[in-house]
Amino acid sequence: MADMKRAKPKLKRARAGGRPFGPDNPGKRFEKGCKPGPGRPPLPPGFRDAIDTMEPEALAKIRAIITAPDHRDALQAAEYVLNQKHGKPTQRTELGGIPGGSPIRTETEDESIAAFKRMIKGPA
To answer: What is the distance in angstroms between the CA of the first residue and the CA of the last residue of the chain?
Structure first.
């Protein structure tokens, strides 16, 4: 008996075509072949061809804006080109409390319930 390992119960495998989350899929994972939604709608016919024909003109306009001496949108156009080429830079955010103070305080569920009860009760 000492060498017997405790066997894990085998989960019933989810059936194909079933719901992504449900009693027949206890692992809470999407089944193979079961998409979470309909996805992106297809592009209208001829859309890509139209974009391809307009691309050289659009690039020429962006180039003209960037190279213009005092164009008001030059910086924005340059940022757009760089973001398209290299991706948008990550924006860093620092979460903290009051400067020089303690960190952000979070409430537990019990504290939230107690605060809610105090609000309902009103001033003493």
So the answer is: 65
Neighbour-count burial of 14, counting CB atoms closer than 10 A to its CB (0-12 exposed, 13-18 middle, 19+ buried): buried
Digit-coded pLDDT (tens) for 69-99:
899 999 999 998 998 888 888 888 776 667 7
If pLDDT is split at 50, 70 and 90, which confidence band does 49 have? very high
State which residues form the domain around 55. Answer: 47-86
Question: In total, how many domains does the chain have?
Answer: 1
Among 30, 3, 2, CA closest to 14: 30
In a domain, 14, yes or no: no
